[in-house]
Amino acid sequence: MDDLHEIGTLLAKPEPSRDVIDRRRHQLQNAMRRTPVRRRRIGWLAGGLTLTAVAAAVAVVVASGATLPTGSPGGPPVAAQQQSARQVLLVAAATAERIPEGSGKYWHVTVTRKDDNGRVFEKRREEYWFQRDGQTWIRGLGLKGEGKIQHFTGPQPFRLGPLETSFEKLRKLPADPAALQAALRIEITDGVRRGDIRTSAGEPSADDRNDFVFEALTSLISQVPVSSEVRAAAFRAIASLPNVQSLGAVEGGHGLQVSLSSEQVRLVVDPETSWVRDTNFYVPQGGGRLFLMDGTASIVAEWTDHLPE
C-alpha cells in the first residue's frame, strides 16, 4: 500500500464518537501516569551536525531499528497497530509539508505542563526566544532568573535529542526521511566515539543510539526551526520505525506510543495541523531527557517578531 492510499484511507474513516474519544483519553492519561519521572543526563555533542557521508549510511539506518513491540494482551495485532500509527504520521507529514513555515525575528518555544485533567501548572511554564545568531532569552519560574527574563548574548544551541546544533546547520538537514535518519545517526555515532555523548551507565548501547535517533526526530517535529519539508521528513521517518503503535483517537488528535529501550513515549499528534498536542517526554533546553510521571506537556513553537517586555 502506498503512502497516498494510506492517507486517503485514514481521511475517509468516520470520526469516533465522544464516548470513544473520552474513553481513549482516560486510557492515555492512565498510561502516561505509569511512566516515571526521570531526568537522564547525557554528555551533549558540541560540534553540531555535519551531514557528511549521508548516502553511505542510509542502508544501515533502514536495516537497523528498535525492537518490535509485542502489543498489549487482548489488543489488536502489532501489525494493525503499526499501520494505524503509520497512517496518522503520514497524514501529519503531508500537512506539515503543506503548511508555510512562517517567518519572524525570534523562534519562540513555550513548554506548558498540565495535570491529568488539563489544568495548567503556571509555575512550570517555560519560554525561550532564539535569535538566528544564537542569542537567547528565557523565562520560567523553574529556570535561571525565577520568572524574570534572562538574556544570553553568547550563542546557545538548539537541542536535537543528545545533539547540539545551530540555526544554520538546522537549515542544511536533508528533507529525505532515510537521509535524515542517516545524518542524525552519523552525528550520534561520532559523538559516542569521541566520548561527547554518554549515559549514566557509560558508553551508549546500540539500543540507546536508536533511542537518540527517535529523540532527535521528536525535537524536529516539535521544538526546533526547520523547514516544512524537513519537518515532514521527520514525521515520515518516525512512521517508518517498527516500535510505534496507535492508541486511537483522543481529545486533541491521535494517541501514539513509541517503545524505547527502557521507556514508553506517548504523544498526541493532530494530523490535521501536524502539531504535537501533548507528550510525556521532551528534551529540555538545558540538556538531558525528561519523562513525566503525572500529567503531560504541550509544546508550542513558532516564529515571532516580538520579545516580551
TrEMBL record:
InterPro entries this protein is in?
CU044_5270-like
Keywords, A to Z, come to: Membrane, Transmembrane, Transmembrane helix
Positions of transmembrane segments: 42-63
Record flagged with keyword Transmembrane helix: yes
Q: What NCBIfam families does this protein map onto?
A: CU044_5270_fam (NF038083)
Listed name of the protein: CU044_5270 family protein
Q: Which organism is it from?
A: Streptosporangium subroseum
Source organism phylogeny? Bacteria, Bacillati, Actinomycetota, Actinomycetes, Streptosporangiales
